[in-house]
Specification:
Shape: globular
Order of helices and strands: HHHEHHHEH
Strand content: 5-15%
Oligomer: single chain
């Protein structure tokens, strides 16, 4: 699991969100990890990304990551996770998320950022997802394990971890 905040949290202690080097380094780190996974014997990687469907550059970014993986004959599938705003705000303050994402620990600022993104960005494809194969999954009431099982079943993916 390579969630987007692994790269963000690695760069934030050195460069802030508003500095040009921040975005360049986050992008380089993500592309580097995807490239190394694609060349490795690993069975795959799950990469998470908050996609603004109102920003064409986000589609170009996802396509560039896909191209890296596919250049090594990797298979890419797309899962659009959807949860209502109330659920996302609640999850944003969960102990596991705050432990893994130090930049979210200023809960008021993180909440304000989420509300701003909700207001300014189109965070759902609304049934017009531009890439395939694609699964839209409402995970508002699903555990992470249940969502993973649905995704694995849908795409015929091998589960590597034993059931708890």
């Amino acid at each position: 699991m390579f969630h987007n905040h692994l790269s963000i949290e690695a760069v934030l202690p050195v460069f802030g969100y508003d500095e040009p080097a921040f975005e360049r380094l986050v992008t380089m780190l993500r592309q580097g990890v995807i490239s190394e996974v694609a060349k490795s014997e690993l069975p795959g990687v799950i990469f998470t990304f908050v996609w603004s469907f109102s920003h064409p550059e986000d589609l170009a970014y996802v396509e560039a990551l896909r191209d890296i993986f596919e250049s090594e004959n990797g298979r890419v599938v797309y899962v659009e996770l959807w949860a209502d705003l109330e659920t996302r705000l609640e999850r944003n303050e969960s102990p596991s998320r705050l432990e893994a994402k130090s930049s979210k620990r200023d809960v008021d600022a993180s909440r304000a950022h989420m509300l701003e993104a909700e207001d300014q960005w189109k965070l759902s494809s609304e049934g017009n997802f531009p890439l395939s194969p694609h699964l839209l999954l409402d995970n508002s009431s699903l555990s992470a394990a249940d969502a993973a099982e649905i995704i694995a079943d849908h795409f015929g993916l091998k589960q590597l971890a034993p059931d708890p």
